[in-house]
C-alpha cells in the first residue's frame, strides 16, 4: 500500500509529522511525502494507493489516476472540490478523527460558558476595577442551536448535554428523534430555528446554499441579545452585516474561528468590534496521531465495502 501525502506549507516536516504514525497503523506501508511521490507511470496496478492531502496544487491529483481514495486532512473539502481537474470517480473522505470531534466540542463548551456567564462584561468590569454583581442564566435557560448536525454536530451535542443546555439543531436532512434535542429541517424551518435559540453554533459545510446564510434578514430573526459562534466555514456569514448587528446591540456577541478570507485582513472592522472574539481557525486541529489512525481504520472499511460516514456526497456537495 502507498500513501501519498501533501500538506500545504509543511513540505519539510511531512515525514516527521506523519510517517511514523502511518507505519505504526499500517505496517509495511510505503509512505511518500511530496515532492517524492514518484512518476505516475511507475506505479504497479496491483498496489493500493491513497492520497492524504491538504490544499494540493490544482491538477496534481489528476496525474495520479491510480488513487483509490482521497482523504482530506480536515473536515472541509472545498480545498479539493475547487480543483477543476479533480478526478470525478475517486471517493473523497472528510476527516472524522477524534481530535476534530474533541476540538469542536471543547470550542463549543468554551463559547457557551463564556456567553452564558456574560464574560464580556465581567472582563470590562475588571479593566475598570469594578466589583459588579450579576445573575447569569442557568444552562437550562439557555438554548444552543447547532447549524449542521453531522459527525461533528453530534460530538458537540454530546459535550454540551451534561451541562444542562437546551439543544436544537438545523440541517437539510431528517434526523431521528432524540431526548432533549429539538430538530429543525430545511429552509422553511430556518426562521423558527433562529428565532428560538440563544446561541447559534455553526458547523455547516461550504456550499452554494450555505453562502451568506447568516445575513441581514436572518439576523433579524434572532432574539435581541443572542450570540453567534462560527466554527464551520467562513462563507456562512455576511461579516459586515454581523459586525453592524453586534455594534447596534441586536447580537450581543460573536466568536468567529473561520472567515471568507484567511488570514482575516488586519484592517477588517471585526478585529476591533467590542463583543466579537476572533480565533485563527483553531477550533479543531487535525492531529497527526489521530488522523492517521482514522485513515487506517477507514481504509479497512473501504476494503470491506462498509459505509463511510464522512465520504463526500457529490449530490449534496459535502
TrEMBL record:
Does Oxidoreductase show up as a keyword for this record?
A: yes
**One matching Pfam family, short form?**
2-Hacid_dh_C
Q: Does the entry feature the keyword Chloroplast, yes or no? A: no
Query: Which keywords fit this entry according to its UniProt record?
Result: NAD, Oxidoreductase
All copies of the D-isomer specific 2-hydroxyacid dehydrogenase NAD-binding domain together span 110-283
Annotated InterPro entries? D-isomer_DH_CS, D-isomer_DH_NAD-bd, NAD(P)-bd_dom_sf
The entry lists its GO molecular-function terms as: NAD binding; oxidoreductase activity, acting on the CH-OH group of donors, NAD or NADP as acceptor
| Name of the protein this chain belongs to | Glyoxylate/hydroxypyruvate reductase A
Which species does this protein come from? Answer: Temperatibacter marinus
Amino acid at each position: 500500500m502507498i500513501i501519498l501525502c501533501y500538506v500545504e506549507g509543511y513540505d519539510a516536516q511531512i515525514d516527521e509529522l506523519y510517517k511514523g504514525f502511518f507505519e505504526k497503523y499500517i505496517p509495511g506501508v510505503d509512505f511518500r511525502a511530496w515532492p517524492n511521490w514518484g512518476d505516475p507511470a511507475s506505479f504497479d496496478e496491483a498496489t493500493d494507493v491513497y492520497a492524504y492531502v491538504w490544499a494540493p496544487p490544482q491538477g496534481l491529483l489528476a496525474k495520479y489516476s491510480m488513487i483509490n481514495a482521497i482523504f482530506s486532512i480536515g473536515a472541509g473539502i472545498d480545498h479539493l472540490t475547487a480543483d477543476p481537474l479533480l478526478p470525478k470517480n475517486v471517493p473523497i473522505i472528510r476527516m472524522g478523527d477524534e481530535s476534530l470531534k474533541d476540538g469542536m466540542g471543547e470550542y463549543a463548551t468554551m463559547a457557551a460558558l463564556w456567553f452564558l456567564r456574560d464574560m464580556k462584561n465581567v472582563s470590562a468590569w475588571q479593566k475598570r476595577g469594578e466589583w459588579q454583581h450579576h445573575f447569569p442564566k442557568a444552562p437550562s435557560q439557555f438554548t444552543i442551536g447547532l447549524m449542521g448536525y453531522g459527525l461533528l454536530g453530534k460530538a458537540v451535542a454530546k459535550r454540551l448535554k451534561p451541562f444542562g443546555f437546551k439543544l436544537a439543531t438545523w440541517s437539510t436532512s431528517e434526523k431521528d428523534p432524540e431526548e432533549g434535542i429539538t430538530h429543525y429541517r430545511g429552509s422553511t424551518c430556518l426562521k423558527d430555528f433562529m428565532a428560538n435559540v440563544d446561541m447559534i453554533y455553526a458547523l455547516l459545510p461550504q456550499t452554494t446554499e450555505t453562502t451568506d446564510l447568516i445575513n441581514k434578514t436572518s439576523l433579524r430573526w434572532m432574539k435581541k441579545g443572542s450570540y453567534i459562534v462560527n466554527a464551520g466555514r467562513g462563507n456562512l456569514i455576511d461579516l459586515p452585516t454581523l459586525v453592524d448587528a453586534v455594534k447596534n446591540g441586536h447580537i450581543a456577541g460573536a466568536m468567529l474561528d473561520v472567515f471568507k478570507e484567511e488570514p482575516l485582513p488586519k484592517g477588517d472592522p471585526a478585529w476591533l468590534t467590542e463583543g466579537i472574539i476572533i480565533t485563527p481557525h483553531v477550533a479543531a486541529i487535525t492531529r497527526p496521531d489521530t488522523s492517521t489512525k482514522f485513515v487506517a481504520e477507514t481504509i479497512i472499511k473501504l476494503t470491506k465495502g462498509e459505509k463511510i460516514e464522512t465520504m463526500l456526497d457529490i449530490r449534496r456537495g459535502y
